[in-house]
């Protein structure tokens, strides 16, 4: 591998290793009027039901298919299967260099701002 291609491959792997939850990812809706919240990202112990108020909720962290959000001023975990999540997705197009082939990567939701 050439040094520039190796650097590009390492940069892509580092980018893919970033946490799944971006700062702008939000819970915009839930299934039902109440949602079960947990103190830890695990449903082995029953949670407590709370009203879904103050939507959208900013996602602070993701773990074990649970989302950490702030509900009624408290940080709690909710089951991601019971939430509607809107993800912030954008593409960052590298400058065109005619001497190198295009590097193609897929970003969910990036179609409206795709590289041209």
From TrEMBL:
Residues 92-116 are annotated as: Disordered. Residues 1-23 form the signal peptide. The keyword Signal applies. Keywords: Signal. The keyword Signal applies. It comes from the Bacteria. This is SH3 domain-containing protein. It comes from Duganella lactea.
């Amino acid at each position: 591998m050439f040094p520039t291609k190796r650097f590009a491959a390492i940069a892509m792997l580092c980018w893919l290793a970033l946490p799944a939850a971006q700062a702008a990812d939000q819970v915009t809706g839930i299934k039902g009027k109440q949602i079960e919240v947990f103190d830890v990202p695990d449903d082995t112990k029953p949670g407590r039901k709370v009203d879904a108020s103050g939507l959208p909720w900013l996602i602070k962290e993701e773990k074990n298919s649970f989302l950490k959000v702030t509900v009624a001023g408290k940080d709690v975990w909710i089951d991601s299967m019971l939430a509607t999540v809107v993800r912030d997705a954008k593409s960052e197009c590298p400058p065109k260099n005619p001497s190198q082939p295009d590097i193609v990567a897929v970003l969910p939701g990036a179609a409206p701002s795709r590289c041209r």
